[in-house]
Amino acid sequence: MIKKQKKRQQLLIFGMGVAAIITFVVLGLRFSYIMVTGSVKGIDLRARAAELSTRSSIVAASRGSIVDRDGEPVALDATSYALSAVLTDEWSVPGGKPNYVQEDQKADLANLLSLVLDQDKEYILKQLNKKDQKEVQFGSKSQSLTIQEKERIEKEGFTGLVFKEQPARLYPNSIYASHLIGYTQREDKSATDDATDTTDASEDQSLLTGAMGVETLFNDQLSGTNGQYTVEVDGNGLEIPQTRRMVTQPHDGQSIQLTLDSSLQQSLEAVMSEVYEKYAPKTMQAVLADPETGEILAVSQRPTFNLNTLSGIDDSWQNLFYENAYEPGSTMKVLALAAAINEGVFDPTATYESGTVKIYDDTIHDYNKVGWGTISYLDGVARSSNVLFVKLITAMGEEKWHDYLNAFHINQKTNSGFSNEATGSNPFDSQLQKVSTGFGQGISTTAAQMMQAFITIANDGEMRPLHFYNATLSANGKELKKETNDVIANPITSDSAKKTLEYLKEVVYNEQGTGQIYEIPGVQLAAKTGTAEMVDPETGQYYKEGDSYIYSVVGFAPADDPKYVAYVTVEQPQKNPDGQSGSEIVAQVFKPLLTRALKSGGYLDEETQTSGTLPNLVGQDLKTAEKTLKDLGITQMKAIGSGSTVTAQYPSAGASLFPGNRGFILTEGDASVPDMTGWSKQDVTHLADLIGVTITSHGQGFVTEQNIPAGRPITQGDVWNITFELKEED
């Protein structure tokens, strides 16, 4: 018995020994495997250990700016603050200062926030008295406070308020080509990150991304690339000093330079707002462009919205200039006239019977229904005769006219880059519809298409792409890419283009011209008016009553060599307190816009239209030079210097000095700083180049301040700090 028991014990001990040996072997092999591979069940233990002992954080890249043609920012990076109020005392430190909103503060806090946030006081009190929430916010406005608003709230000393810093976008001009510029919205990066991402969740990972306009179109270039750093942490998750290591450097976004002239743009926005408020049209559009380059200098629409607050955006999300197709009306006659001249079927002295013309069973009338009897073709242009343009389309042939519409790129996108750019439509089916397109009916286009065609006529028949993008700039201002403005079409000859502009002067200066109201003293203007009937969307027919028209005008100035083309449309004014005609309403936008441009460019002088070619004045006695200029009728040359002999001049010999532009005669001897109040930026720049000083400019418009007072001696190497501001039109 004892012998058997002893044998069982020996077997048990042997079995345990074998089991122990097997266990040690298995564990040894397992540890060896882990030591060699560094992983368990596909998990990299080294990486996991590093994750537990390190933390990654984002280093945000700055979003690039959007700047105007002079490099002044119209959209730039900023910081905003999201406000919330803590209602619970659960997070307070015992014995410490309360970090929640106290009951006796709520009424006063509601008063303050209602003022700062422009919110209803009762709504704020309701938020502050919520019993089922530990922390509350106060609407969208409270989520984008400026630093000034934040400091205004903080200085009152209320407890329990939390301000979270976050990236934001600042638009210095608020309303400034808003649908073109667009806006950004915050995108929460953490919402799309993988769950295993070890980036510090406490860091603000919201990114700005474009939501409209240029902000969207160039989002990739503007966005830049965020950087990342790692830091070691202890067992409590606290950062260990001097362990921060940059993994990737941030790369700030590129800037986008536009062709817009801020002086002209801001002036346009002001006059658009004034007219929109007074007459309440359904829509308004205005655009100014340089025909030689195709650059858009100013563009605006109503309704519009505030870029900073987005106030008004619900009234219209549509970029009307590119996305809204409409019947252009009689401004289309500009293209029909150019085509007729190019085809040799327009004789300004030929006559025809105005009033009506039959197209099979249909009758087309002039706008007064009865016409003006037998008149010349040129008078027909001045009076905007529909009958004349039916005759011109018929004479050149409907299909030939269709070819010209295509050559002028009508019903083709202008390659703006915007995905919603419209093309409009032109069925070109019945003969009535075909000839009606000659006076802008039965065809729909966009303002962008019309403007591109207009600048072609102003540019000797050469079409350059209409564009608002000028260049892409690196973060340090280096030009990376430049817009090209090569000729893309030649729909008419230079001679035809010049004749078109010559004949369009009749619209303004003929006693029967429909555009007399658009005359601008001091410059010759070529123009064409338009009054397009509106189609009732319910019936598909033109409205029979009410002010259901799109009033428009296109102007070319100076007419003989256009430097600017302006196009304005006003749709269905809902108010008319002073009984103005459609043209009179349009003129309230058109004339200030074009007048300011002409003044700024030096092409307008209300006292004289003289522009002279300058002789060589260098080496002449100053008095002799001044007499020479006076004899030529050139009165805007200013002498700089105390000597009696001319040593330099601007403009140079052989160049022209246009009305409203300043020229300069430099003499030997000491020179004094002139009083530049009221000068344009162009005038200041020309003088500075002539005498060899540097200027730094601030703002847009005309000189209001100069750091070196008038009368002080001019010294080589001087830096003139000049402030420009817009001034109201007389």
From TrEMBL:
Any Gene Ontology biological process: cell wall organization
Alphabetical list of InterPro entries matching this protein: Beta-lactam/transpept (IPR050515), Beta-lactam/transpept-like (IPR012338), PASTA_dom (IPR005543), PBP_dimer (IPR005311), PBP_dimer_sf (IPR036138), PCN-bd_Tpept (IPR001460)
Stretch list, region Disordered: 186-205
Keyword line: Membrane, Transmembrane, Transmembrane helix
Location relative to the cell: Cell membrane
Highest taxon above the source species: Bacteria
Membrane spanning residue stretches: 12-36
Record has Transmembrane as a keyword: yes
Topological type in the membrane: Single-pass membrane protein
Family, as annotated: Belongs to the transpeptidase family.
Protein name: PASTA domain-containing protein
